[in-house]
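thread from #wetlab-drylab

HS: before we spend reagent money on co-crystallization trials with SN-glycerol-3-phosphate, can we at least see a predicted complex? here's what I'd submit
DV: go for it
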Amino acid sequence: MKFFLDTANVEEVKRIADLGLADGVTTNPTIIAKEGKNFKEVILEICNIVKGPVSAEVTSDKAEDMIKEAMELAVWAPNIVVKIPMTEQGIKAVNILSKKGIKTNVTLIFSVTQGLIAAKAGATFVSPFLGRLDDIGGDSLKVVRDLRKVFDVYGFKTEIISASIRSLKHVEEAALAGSHIATIPGNLFDKLWSHPLTDKGLVQFKKDWDAYLNTER
Ligand code: G3P
């Protein structure tokens, strides 16, 4: 499973990219607004750091406006993926954009049918929102698992990005459910590799090694 970073914080992207762990980046209007910087500048900075797909979202409601926005975004950098919301107008836009060879990530997916429709429209990626679905008592992992099954059975090339990831459990379960990608917020990334027993074990190793070095042999 690939790891994307769900952030527009350039420092965070640099840090995780330096570890070789950032296969891509996803943003949305909320994430961009949080940084308080110019949209294009932030996206371009990120595209320079990460070679993989970088999602930038359109904000229009109508298909023709989304297409116009998407065409503008797509030329910013070769790794831009245009994020389009899962609406009737969004699907119309994805159909046209995919025929033009523009990569899309259909966002705000909460059901298998939404994901299937997006894939049929030619979406490069679909983003089921795990945390937000579980918040209202849904079974987000079932959506991911079933969607993967449907994509495999019918030979869709569309990749699943598990988004709205809130915990390590979400990351592990997304991997088990066959998600192609998990997009993870920066603060959760550190928790992926750290464990108190690892730290404790290391302290003990060091202590024992120092004692060994100080022993007369
Ligand atoms: O990229 C969209 C997404 O991951 C949102 O997450 O935590 O706002 O539900 P959250």
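DV: The chain has a mean pLDDT of 97.
HS: ok that's useful, forwarding to the group
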